Each structure stands twice: as structure tokens, then as C-alpha cells.
Amino acid sequence: MIRKAFKMKLYPDNIEEYTRRHNPIWPELEQLLKEHGVHNYNIFLDSETHFLFGYAEVESEEKWSAIGDTEICKKWWKHMAGLMETNADDSPVSIDLKHVFHMS
């Protein structure tokens, strides 16, 4: 299992809406993530900086990368685009974080 961590930037006035849209997440998106080998997916918010910290365990980098090519994911990105910093294709600006420590 590969541990992935990344950060994204949420616009300050959108914390409640971002949270609402994730609770619950679209069932078809949840299914897609599971089909692409995503497990233990969490998103945390730093309320001072408005950075979101994402953590997921994935079966492979290839499966993880393929999620962004699906229509469901593109639709989700468009749905979330006004709430956070995004790229031209509506995908969130996401910065991978380097894994430096793990304890089981």
C-alpha cells in the first residue's frame, strides 16, 4: 500500500460549503475511488491557513492517476472549483507532501 499526502488551498469563506459537499460524498465518486484502489482517504483542514491536508492509501500510482481521467472525477472537480484554488481543468491545485516518518 502506498501512502499519499497532499495539500490544497480552500478559499476562506467556503469552509462550511466544502464540508457540506463532502458529507456525504457522491456515492458514485466513492465507488470510483474504491474501484481505483483508494483506501483510508481523509481530508483535514488547517483553519488558520485554509490549507486542506489530504491523506490516502492507494494500491498503485497508476490507478490513483487514472481517477482524474474519469467523467465522474471531472464532474466533481467542476462542482468543487469555486471553493478552492484550481488548475485550468478545474482540478484542485494539489502539492504532494514528502513522507518523512511513520509509526505503526
Q: What would your notes on this structure say?
A:
The protein has 104 residues and is an alpha+beta fold. It has one domain (2-96): Alpha-Beta Plaits (2-Layer Sandwich), CATH 3.30.70. It contains 4 helices and 4 strands. It has helices at residues 15-22, 27-35, 61-66, 71-80; strands at residues 2-9, 38-46, 51-58, 95-96. The protein is globular and about 35 Å long. The mean pLDDT is 97.
Task: List the main descriptive attributes of the protein structure presented here.
alpha+beta, Alpha-Beta Plaits, 4-stranded antiparallel sheet, globular
SSE succession: EHHEEHHE
The CATH class, by name, is: Alpha Beta
State which percent range the strand residues make up. 25-35%
* Distance between the ends: 14 Å
In short:
The protein has 104 residues and is an alpha+beta fold. It is built from four helices and four strands, in the order E-H-H-E-E-H-H-E.
Task: Produce the secondary structure layout.
Elements (H helix, E strand, L loop, with lengths): L1 E8 L5 H8 L4 H9 L2 E9 L4 E8 L2 H6 L4 H10 L14 E2 L8
Antiparallel strand pairs: 1-3, 1-4, 2-3
